[in-house]
Amino acid sequence: MSDFLFNEFEPSSAAAWKQKIQVDLKGADYNDTLLWHSREGITVKPFYFAGETESFAPETKNKAYEVCQEIYISDEKTANFLANDALQRGATSILFKSKGVFVIEDVLKDIPVQTKIQFQLQFIDVDFYKKLIDAAANYVLYLNLDVVYQLATSGNWFASETEDFKNVATILEYAKGKNVFVLGVNAELYQNSGATTMQQIAYALAQGTEYLEKFGAEIANNIQFNFAVGSNYFFEIAKIRAFKNLWNSILAEYNTTVENIEVFVTPSLRNKTLYDYNVNMLRTTTECMSAILGGATTVSNIAYDTIFHKKNEFGERISRNQLLILKEESYFENAQNFADGAYYIESLTEQLMEKALYIFKQIEESGGFIKQLFKGNVQRKIAESAFKEQADFDNGSEILLGTNKFPNPKDFMSEDLELYPFLKSNKNKTVITPIIRKRLSQKMEKERLEAEKVNANSKEEANG
User: Fold this and answer.
1) Secondary structure, 3-state, 272-283
2) 18: pLDDT confidence band, cut at 50, 70 and 90?
3) Predicted structure pTM score
4) Sign of the C-alpha dihedral, residues 250, 255, 258, 259?
5) Chain-centre distance for alpha carbon 449
6) Cβ neighbours of residue 361 closer than 8 Å, sequence gap 6 or more
7) Tens of pLDDT along 330-377?
8) Helix (H) or strand (E) holding 303
9) Total domain count for the chain?
10) Cross-strand bridge partners of residue 300
């Protein structure tokens, strides 16, 4: 087959292809016509050849990704029921979220041992974390403890910088020798707030480096990195690959390595829409594909209606089944290395690495990530990027189908809102300016909802 397809044809060089393209362009400039420059300054060519770039395939064990189900703990027995139900329906990992302490044994009851159990808790209670580590001794446990994220997203430490890092050090010491990933680097915040792809990589690296500096290189095997991915398909694949390569390079500078970089990925909320919400399913499907092909170890999908409905069985089942279809029916089960050697993706990976490394070095030379947060430089850079992306959406060059392109005028949502889908103002006093998540379509959706109310009131007056 290979002889028939390849060996009977004369090979063509990149120069020959470009010469042929120039002829077909009939005088139009090749660079102006066919080279595309992304908002971040990445150049995309119309074709790629072997040998243009080296391979940047991260060293990753080719294994199946975990299908994770997110569950909020408002009632322990309900959370436990939902967890066991999700595991029976195909999930292989559970992410529990909570704002306060809970009865650990009730939450973990009957969950099969060796299940990957994730926690994202919005507090630090050293004694509670110790109990959690002991109670979950038979599981692969991820605590995702991230005090820098707490600072960045809320504008405040849990208590203070000194106390927060002291508490984390105590928990790290207690978890030594146990099957626990204590630390998390929650870089999803940067994607959801409008940071560029390179900024997301650089900030994740800088945040992780803060922990290496605080706790020593030996905690490198104690970190999980959390990313959000958007719908720029190939860029998102390259983003995760670029991050893994750069993190390995940083670890080498600390004379350490990790067997496998743990990367937890979820689809972005930034491009999710209230109107024509079924398109969200298409968006999350391609985003989950990017996560898998980029090398995510765990993927947690979001429901198509997550921004305006309370959690419900239908939405959660659909989001989980999207991952199961990719895994079981679309041959993505062991797809972490499928992108290796793809010339376009390797080129994107190289460019993202170069630009992200430049940002990272600037942060380190200026005193590190925490210092840059207190100076407001990180917030300012993200705001500048978010402003440009928002402007592109507002003028129609950044398209969200069904919202700013081909909207359905008969799509009404004002009666279907169970959750407030827009940014809420935070008037709490903060030590730094927090980084705020914001969806692109918020302003347009508010205007449509207001128009719905005006029309409804007009009809009532006409009928009255």
Assistant:
1) CCCCCCCHHHHH
2) confident
3) 0.94
4) positive
5) 29
6) none
7) 999 888 888 888 899 999 999 999 999 999 999 999 999 999 999 999
8) none
9) 1
10) 68
Residue 142's nearest CA partner among 186, 112, 102 is 186
The helix (H) or strand (E) run that includes residue 235 is: helix 233-253
Q: If 0-12 CB within 10 Å is exposed, 13-18 middle and 19+ buried, where does residue 338 land?
A: middle
| Bridge partner list, 142 | 118, 181
Q: Which CATH number does the domain housing residue 149 bear?
A: 3.20.20.240
Q: Write out pLDDT tens, residues 295-321.
A: 999 999 999 999 999 999 999 999 999
Computed over its alpha carbons, how large is the radius of gyration of the chain?
A: 24
User: Residue 50: is it exposed, middle or buried by C-beta count within 10 angstroms (0-12/13-18/19+)?
Assistant: exposed
Answer whether 339's CB lies under 8 Å from 308's CB.
Answer: no
Instruction: Tell me how far apart the alpha carbons of residues 109 and 73 are, in angstroms, rounded to a whole number.
Output: 14
CB 332 within 8 A of CB 324: no
> What is the signed CA dihedral for 344, 346, 351, 352, rounded to 10 degrees?
110
Tokens standing for residue 355: 């630009």
Domain assignment of residue 431, given as a range:
1-464
Q: Which residues pair with 66 in a beta bridge?
A: 298
Q: How far apart are CA 164 and CA 277, in angstroms?
A: 40
- Number of Cβ atoms within 10 Å of the Cβ of 260: 15
